[in-house]
Amino acid sequence: MNGEELTEQETALYDRQIRVWGADAQRRLSKSHILVYGMKGTVAEFCKNIVLAGVGSVTLMDDHAVTDSALSANFLILPDENLSHGKTLAEACCDSLKEFNPMVHVSVEKGDISTFGVEFFEKFDAVVISCCSLAKKKLINQKCRKLPKRISFYTVDCRGSCGEIFVDLKNYKYSKKKLEETIECQLEYPSFEDAIAAPWKALPKRVSKLYFGMRVIEQFEDIEGRNAGQTSIADLPGVLKLRKELCETNSVNESQVPDALLERLLIGTSEFPPVCAVIGGILGQEVIKAISGKGDPLKNFFFFDAMDGKGLIEDISKPRHS
Amino acid sequence: MDTIEVSNLNRQFLFRRSHVGLSKAKVARDAVLRFRPNISITPYHSNVKESHFNVDFFKEFDVVLNGLDNLDARRHVNRLCLAADVPLVESGTTGFLGQVTVHLKGKTECYECQPKPAPKTYPVCTITSTPSKFIHCIVWAKDLLFAKLFGDKDQENDLNVRSNDTGNSSEHSADVFEYRKDEDIEQYGRRIYDHVFGHNIEVALSNEETWKNRNKPRPIYSKDVLPVKMTEENGNTEKDCATGDVSVMAFLSLKNPQDIWSLAENTRVFLEALRLFFSKRRKDIGNLTFDKDDQLAVEFVTAAANIRASSFAIPLHSLFEAKGIAGNIVHAVATTNAIVAGLIVIEAIKVLKKDNNNYRMTYCLEHPSRKLLLMPVEPYEPNKSCYVCSETPLSLEVNTHHSKLRDFVEKIVKGKLGMNFAVIMQGTSILYEVGEDLEEDMVAIYAANLEKALSELPSPVTSGTVLTVEDLQQEFSCSINIKHREGFDEEKEPNGMVLSGWVEAPVYKDNNKPIGNGESTSNTFPSEEKDVEIQEMSEGTETVTGKKRKLSKVDENRNQKKPEKLDVDDEDDELIISDDWESLTKKKRV
């Protein structure tokens, strides 16, 4: 797009959403650059949403080869052998995504993201990572936070019927209209590392059990040197043992992390398409909010469990030391 | 039966630009097969209300998922699913809000157990004489002026109605709007302009009473805004691709639909649009109804509404905003739709697994309520006084000597009960029905019956009579107990009929009603003097909490609150729901 005005084509295409967030927000979206790492079903849904919304560019990273299991929850991967043969997940998704909105620049970046320097991340306004080990999450988060530029950082993971989103907007300032007035808001977000370091005992009693469940599995994978999602029900004894240790360390009752939940998370290594849609939708909306500067962003975790149907926000951070 | 439009492409991701104009059902099917080749998908490019989609058709399915965009169709499908005893998953979205509900006959509420709000309507005098909000000006421009100039000439039109209609100058006004043979279009345009924005305002001003507590409008004459010479000078090049693409804006270099035009610019658009209709689209005149996708119509209505707004010191709006209001455009984004779609599938899978104890209604919120962005609620038991699924008889108070069968059909059967192809019987006598294979003499009898007073029908309808109204396609039947009543309050009960046992839906502020159940705002101009008050929705009512279900006797036009609540805040998009959602769990559950 040229200059400051939306083109006629953009106005026609984005009419229904401009009526939601306004032309200014749309303009800001069209100038934004998003990095996406880990192309599973939920992220595919998310990418679809932001491409439709009309962001400036989306850069995809996932060097895994296309396999049959990818087809089960990633609707961007087409079963047609000819189309996906020899391609990486990112490449296959890239081809599909371009079709959704020719005005968005979609590309693929290859390589080991852990080795990329801070300068690599500077060109992005938002970074979304998935299918990532604990160590990698922390690393990328730190690199983003190092930059003077404010980069919106997100992690997203779906396991079976459950999903988790983490949001780090650093120091986020935005304004909103309340009645006739415009009020300035400011939110300070902890890094992923700081957030999960919050002692469990200090958290409110009613915090979603899914938070703890995810942390236990995450730690388990870390300790065992597994890739993200590389668990099975056979790991249950090991996981339960770890839970016991973590609960003791944190002085909380083991009932905070129910057996049944851990089982579900262990078994649910593949994604469930409707949950991908729900999580991908929520995440899409969060990224759009942060880029457009419009709307209250969620702080700082979002959980969804199809079993009870609740989609809730938890504010989890390390308490400040006095 | 819809075809694909450009504005769909921001969220309906199965469609591409190259598909614009094609059938949604067919293209969607093809798109899905690309990533799931082994599913059997049958597209029907048709209206779900067609007779082909009868109860037997619905019986073939294990579950029905609705993605409809109007209340009428939803009610229709609801009744068919009840008749076929097929579970229905309903849903709707608007902007950031959405909801999914599950309906099982006998186990949960049906879609109509909680009546859905009727579209907002405005008092006639507000539209014709005392507008106070921009939307009143839009309704005036669309349903009165546009209709008068370009629509069916035989339609009744209140354009010259004044609050105290002492003198009847209808003959004079008929001349005014009629385009005279060989008249200069420019002159015609100014004549119309001056009549509606100048003359009519002056006439209205002459009635002091109206303006006692209101700001007076000012009359506007075109020569004061746009001296005649200026328009003559204004370019001869027109930008139009095809007849349908005729547009004023490009011609006048008013490129940005988000700009708010000045009074002079609005006047130019008004006059130019009128000129273009007459010079390029002459054959359309007399047949047109307002269509939001008709660019020239939108330009005309925007300009007309703005000029009227200017007269009444109401803030002007851009074409973009005006189009949204006039066209009842529902704002929509891909993300909310994706979330709701996921939730629909989750419920559908439960239905297929017959997971009876876990069905839920889920609400998707813009602002969290008690940390929840997605709020699950257990379904309610069926409403015992729901006339749709509980077959509760209704009562109708009516003057059986004065009211005709036609009134009953229009106002009650179609208007309230939503039955379009009804059979009306008293006992075994059929008083009225519609159908394709009726014998001529029967058709004649029914036509005659329509014009008879109820008490004078071949099977007289009097106090104590029970009428049965059935819609065979919906397989839905309803009993109505008739009670004769002599008098009705002209203001509160202008229909001269009062239906009870029917829980009247409260009229909401646009933004606070169940999400996306139908056209968000309808500016359908009321044909009667219906004074519907707009009620502020208070916490704890509707949508999430559900209402008390007392059998209440409700007047046709219940005035719910004092007029000061008419000032609707159009900006606030918040859905006000009960903060006390846990109390919901104490309601009667399945």
TrEMBL record, chain A:
GO cellular component: cytoplasm; SUMO activating enzyme complex
UniProtKB keywords: Acetylation, Ligase, Nucleus, Ubl conjugation pathway
Recorded GO MF terms: SUMO activating enzyme activity
Keyword Repeat: no
Principal place of residence: nucleus
CDD domains (alphabetical): Aos1_SUMO
Pathway field: Protein modification; protein sumoylation
Stored InterPro entries: ThiF/MoeB/HesA, ThiF_NAD_FAD-bd, Ubiquitin-activating_enz
Domain THIF-type NAD/FAD binding fold positions: 14-313
GO BP, sorted A to Z: protein sumoylation
Record text on subunit structure and interactions: Heterodimer of SAE1A or SAE1B and SAE2. The complex binds SUMO proteins via SAE2.
Entry's family note: Belongs to the ubiquitin-activating E1 family.
Name of the molecule in the record: Ubiquitin-like 1-activating enzyme E1A
Source organism (scientific name): Hibiscus syriacus
Lineage, opening ranks: Eukaryota, Viridiplantae, Streptophyta, Embryophyta, Tracheophyta
